[in-house]
Amino acid sequence: MADVADIAGLHDVELAALATAGQRAAFGELVRRHGSAVRALLRRMGADPALADDIAQDACLAGFERIAEFRGEGTFQAWLKRIATRLYLKRVKRTLAQSLVQEAAEVGSDVAHGFVDARLDLDEALKGLPEAERVCVSLCYGAGFSHVEAAELLNTPLGTVKSHVKRGLDRLRAKLAGGPGETGRQVNG
Amino acid sequence: MADPEFEKRLSRMFGEAPAFADADVFARGIEDRLARSWTLRRLMIGAAGIGGGVIAAAQMVGGHFAKAASGFSTASAEAVQRGGQAIGQLRFLSDLPIGGEVMWVGIGLAVLAVVLMAARAIEEF
User: Fold this and answer.
1) Does pTM top 0.80 for this prediction?
2) Binary contact (B9, A36; C-beta < 8 A)
3) Chains A and B: how many Cβ contacts under 8 Å?
């Protein structure tokens, strides 16, 4: 059994192999490395911090159960993010379905109406997006789903997803126009 | 209009997750929950094994186990007797250049090896 010092130096794929063999410490190290990214993505998708942590925890536990399915083809983080986003979408299915339909029916874009602040970071910029746009953009650019996959996940026509993504990107571009913003900062759990 | 540069930048920004101050606490929480669920699973498997054993024992007793066992023991006694006779016919054992003590030591070592293997298996599982 690998000890803690050994585990810290291992690659994600090696840790996943150890976790497949039942080493919980190896999976704990994977969570230590990627848990924050998953929690951040869920918050960016619109979950409040408590819900985001709750779902991230469920996603990690589900990830451990299904760790044998991770074959190292993509990154472990992307794999875990996909599990987490699916769980989040299940939780907000009802309210999200409404906003997807309502917001898709809205005509035009109020990009110009948005404020432009060079200091705004991605989190702040995302908060200013309508729920459907925020979720669609996060799915495609945060969790790595294609438009088709996002449409299947959301049980929504592909055109609707593309439209939400496009409008979301337009708004984000306007809001983030001033610079890269503050990323990599520390967030209180 | 598609803006590949902005899309790349956005993906990069999504990839740059902020460091959570309680990341270690979060990970330890997951490890604890995994440990708890593993303990619970082991207890459940153990309980299921004991339950299954009790049911099997009850079935064997209720299903005239004693009668069947006596049949088995008669058959096995005959088999052992036949085996003994066959071994008795094997003259090569007495022709081996070893004494009876050496043979008994060999048998003892074999038993010891089996016990060690069993102990190792128990330790592993």
Assistant:
1) no
2) no
3) 105
